[in-house]
Amino acid sequence: QVQLVESGGGLVQAGGSLRLSCAASGSINAMGWYRQAPGKQRELVAAITIGGSTNYADSVKGRFTISRDNAKNTVYLQMNSLKPEDTAGYYCAASRLHTIVPIIRVGSWGQGTQVTVSS
Asked: According to the model, what pLDDT value does residue 116 have?
């Protein structure tokens, strides 16, 4: 099973930016990010195929950008114009399938990194 190591979370004021990174221990197909706030279900944030096709949650469109470096087996999430409602644990997800959506297709999870946006 592929191991995923995340970095880049933290505390930021509303309107600020953060960049998350996730490195996979081996080659992987689809990658992306889910997030989970206390008391809520884990939800998709953004996904990217090995070919570069992307998929975003409506709530982050225009503010977040997902990208990947296939040579480094790494996926990135650039988060701009952050809002308090973006506060959650962010989990890197990967699959040997062509997509990580829906969640049942995720084969590997990162340990999670906390993003907290203060108002």
From this structure: 98
How confident is the model over 45-98, as pLDDT tens digits?
Answer: 999 999 999 999 999 999 999 999 999 999 999 999 999 999 999 999 999 999
Instruction: Please tell me the distance from the alpha carbon of residue 113 to that of residue 9, in angstroms, as a whole number.
Output: 5
* Structure token digits, residue 90: 């962010």
Sheet of 64-69, strand order: 4-7, 18-24, 74-79, 64-69
Closest CA to 66 of 58, 74, 76: 76
**Six token digits for residue 72:** 């480094």
* 37/91 Cα distance (integer angstroms): 11
| Helix (H) or strand (E) segment spanning residue 94 | strand 88-95
Q: How confident is the model at residue 1 (pLDDT cuts 50, 70, 90)?
A: confident
103: helix, coil or strand? Answer: helix
Find tokens 């297709």 and name the residue: 105
Answer whether 43's CB lies under 8 Å from 58's CB. no
Q: Quick count: other Cβ atoms within 10 Å of Cβ 58?
A: 6
**Which residues touch 116 (CB under 8 Å, ≥6 apart)?**
10, 11, 12, 87
